[in-house]
Structures are given as C-alpha cells and as structure tokens.
Amino acid sequence: MTIRVLLADDQTLVRAAFAMLVESAADMEVVGQAATGREALELARKERADLVVMDIRMPDLDGIEATRLIAADEDLAGVRVLVLTTYDTDEHIVEALRAGASGFLVKDTRPAELLDAIRTVAAGEALLSPGPTARLIARFLRSPSTPAVGGPEGLSEREREVLTLVARGLNNTEIAEALGLSPLTAKTHVSRIMGKLGARDRAQLVIVAYESGLVTPGTM
C-alpha cells in the first residue's frame, strides 16, 4: 500500500528536498505541500494523507496548533503527524506530542532514517528520536499542564509494567522478552492500555508515564 505523505515546512528548498526523497521511495507518494500550518490543516482535510511531516515553526498557524487541530478532527482520525525540528532541545517538541503528534525527528536525520520513520508512524507506531527524548522529558514534561489523556490509576500491575517499558523506549518484542511474554501478548497489553487511557498512540503513553510519576527522568 502506498503511503500518502503531506509535507509542511515554510522553507521551499526544504520541502523540495523532502519531496524528492519521499518520491524516491516505491511505497510513498507526496500528495501535497504546505508552507503554513493552516495550509497543512486544509490539505490534510482535502487530500486525506496518511501522514503529515510537520515543521514546528511556521507562519499563520504553527505546527503545534496544526497538529492539535488535526488530532482533534474526527474526520482525520487516521492521519498521523511526524514532527521535524531543527533543534533537538526545542521544548515545543513535547507540546507537539501532547497535541497529538506520533513522534519527532531532528532535521539532520539521515534520509534512510526519515523514510523508515515515515513507515513506522504511518503504521500506527510512535517514533521518538532516542538521543534527545530523555533530555526533553527531563526538562519539560513535568512542567504544569493539563494532561492530554487519563492517568494509570485504573491499570493492572502488569499493564503498569508494560507502560513503564513503553516509556523507556522498548518495542513490543523487547517488552515481551523483558516480561517473559509472547510478542502478541505484549502488543495486546499495549493496545489495551491505550484504550483504557484514551491515548492516540505510544507517544502519548510516554507522556502519561512521566506526568504521573510512574517513570521519572533519569530512569530511562
């Protein structure tokens, strides 16, 4: 199945470079390009892209607010957002995750890694750049805010264990190995946790784990 990609960045050359890269992949196509967050929102509604590659800093409507509006639109429930940023210490990344982004990467990511990230996020998984993730959470995630989803109070002990491992960056196979489960059982636990917490994806599970204190900075 071809992944329909919408590119949102206010720099024309950056969009052109990303478009060439995406179009070079046999399983992807660019269905639109936006120079502002508002254009990204309009094109997401018009083109029904599977995934939006979203810059954070854009005029008219920034990438965070555009992400929030996309995530809140029931008609765009299947649209995923992958945030790209120039600086891996940008506090807005966490805001983007709270707004509903399924992951982020820094713009100097290698081309092959960006294509893999698009495939991962389009498949419904979360993707967080491993290097800056812990630093960003440590600096910004514990700041006062309104939680985007519910807390872990209603989870079983096993589900809390799984949530902790998700927050530490483990995939389903790694969670299964750590807890002596089958990969399918681990996947089922993760899906059930997302359902109980009303989380859009694994990125929001990470936020829940840190905001609730289930995992604290420094324990990654």
Description:
The protein is α/β, with parallel strands linked by helices. It contains ten helices and six strands, in the order βαβαβαβαβαβααααα. The chain has a six-stranded parallel sheet with strand order 2-1-3-4-5-6, with helices on both faces. The chain is globular and about 50 Å long. The modification 4-aspartylphosphate is found at residue 55. This is Two-component system response regulator. Keywords: DNA-binding, Phosphoprotein, Transcription, Transcription regulation.
The geometry reads as globular
Instruction: Please name the fourth-level CATH homologous superfamily of the largest domain.
Output: Response regulator
Integer-rounded radius of gyration: 17 Å
Largest sheet: 6 strands, parallel
What is the count of helical runs?
A: 10
Q: In which range does the helix fraction lie?
A: 40-55%
Q: What is the spatial order of strands in the main beta sheet? A: 2-1-3-4-5-6
Q: How many structural units, i.e. domains?
A: 2
Residue share in β-strands: 5-15%
| Pattern of helices and strands | EHEHEHEHEHEHHHHH
What CATH first level of the largest domain would be assigned?
Answer: Alpha Beta
Structural class of the secondary structure composition? alpha/beta
CATH topology of the largest domain: Rossmann fold
Whole-number mean pLDDT: 83
- Tell me the CATH architecture of the largest domain: 3-Layer(aba) Sandwich
Euclidean distance between termini CA atoms = 35 Å
Q: What are the segments in which pLDDT stays under 50 over at least 5 consecutive residues? A: none
How many distinct beta strands?
A: 6
GO biological process, one term: regulation of DNA-templated transcription
Domain Response regulatory: 4-122
InterPro entries: CheY-like_superfamily, NreC/VraR/RcsB-like_REC, Sig_transdc_resp-reg_C-effctor, Sig_transdc_resp-reg_receiver, Tscrpt_reg_LuxR_C, WalR-like
Domain HTH luxR-type: 148-213
